[in-house]
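quick one, 616 residues, struct below
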Amino acid sequence: MNQKKTTIELLAPAKNLECGTAAINSGADAVYVGAPKFSARSAAGNSLADIEKLISYAHKYWAKVYVALNTILFDNELESAGKIIRSVYDSGADGLIIQDMGLLEIGLPPIPLIASTQTHNYEIEKIQFLERVGFQRVILARELSLRQIEEIRSKTEIELEFFVHGALCVCYSGQCYLSEATQGRSANRGECAQPCRLPYTLTDADGSVIADNKYLLSLKDLNLSREIPALLKAGITAFKIEGRLKDVEYVKNITAFYRNRLDVALTTGMQRASSGTTTTEFVPDPVKTFNRGFTNYFVHKRSKDNLSRSPKSIGVLIGKVLHVEKDCFQMESAELLSNGDGICFFDEYDRLHGTNINTVERGRIYPASIEGITVGMEIYRNHDHQFIKTLNHANTKRKITASIEFSETEDGYSLKATDEDGIEAEYIQRCKKIKAEKPDQAEAAVKKQISKSGESIFEISEIRVYWKEPAFLPIAVLNEMRRELIKRLESKRINMYPRRMHAIVLNEIPFPQKNLDYRANVVNKKAKEFYKRHGVESVEPGFEIREQKDGTLMTMKHCLRFQFGLCEGRGKAPEPLFLRDIKNRYRLEFDCARCEMRVVLESTKNGKKTISPSDF
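---
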């Protein structure tokens, strides 16, 4: 008896319809796309019409489309959010990514729910609760280690999704209030101003500067491509690429790269979550599209190699400058650079500068600007012109294999196709039977015409011909038979798409905490009702509806005390430690038992007040 295989999904981002289609073509088993409103990337919302087009395209390959509606919502937004959810469900969406628990109280259609990483899915007890109230999947916190993932898997049955590539938030997702406190732009409302990507100065209690004007909260990008086998073993079933604000070149490159890596890592008992095989006319390489350098973050152990030197894309190190002239320079590995490339370098103050290359001639590099380039300086390429050009023109194809059986009927001929998922379609052509004048060429002629699948989603892998005697069929007839068969097979696939549905049944499973502060992100009455029904005794209004914007603004595994060797012994600095930007000073608190750092703003008002806590 065959055991059911574990389905493994590669999940790619889609800023828009173009990116979503490119992701599917490049091998994604699923894509996630922003709803028209209320997405955690407000700049990446999509129209319902485009979402429906993307769903229709993805479902041909039995690939899924998840819609992100993962901001927290005010009371006056719940009705609008409910209408959008109903619309995306009616369009065929395969799942809904949410953060706001108030949505569970408004009567959702039977669409599978996915707990956004914004719900801070770090503790086993929280994940178990989400499973018991009806979520089908949780997107795990990026800070988890392999050991922690293994433990979560051993104590839950819910689907586990994990980020494996892309930009990293330094704070636990859903727990960052720095942007809201300082600029009135809430990360939990999809409007993050990314203050973590700005420079800060670190001082001790005596005012001594430990690090001056550095990117102390800006992390390198995540790259867990080497950890895929270990993550599979730990229990991850959905491998997620970050990047709903990234362009189509990034989506093509990174999706194709992880498709290759994941296919190699799949073992006996595992299978891809969608159909078809992708072929590309380029060799995918993560360093050739946007990146700030790479880290594996906390998947193994704490490291000091997580901070990026710049929040901008650095790319790949090419070599050192050997000689500088008035309008050009020479360097190691100059042959790796081409006309149109973008290069960057760090000056003596560790500030990043960049320019474009106009010409490379006989080992000399002529940049648009020679300013700042000195002998001994390391040069990085952050825009590979030829690679991007290849990506733009590359013919990426995804094909589903199908076999065809050509046979004789009583009054004509039949074509029957069976694709790789066992879907069958048939087309019967009634016509006069004409004995072939060249019997030895008749079967070859049939196979030649029937095998031309053209721009369809199918690749014909085998054609079997059965007839009493070889016959002549006009090319036009064979072409019509093939076209109609392929049309029917594609339609059959769409009609037989195995869409999953799941209705939420309200229950009173106890929430693991009795008292919730503002970090529970409750800003509407329905969310408050949800937690009360699950046994929570007190619920504090969310940060966005507080008048006073002070308190803990960020909680993170990244630790500056550890980063600068100040944990213990002679290197320890007088505490508390402080971070400063051009406007504010933030106190740092350290919870060594949990290996966490907190960023605390002591007092500020940003003048933005949406709802009075007294109305909550």
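The CA atoms of residues 93 and 499 lie 9 Å apart.
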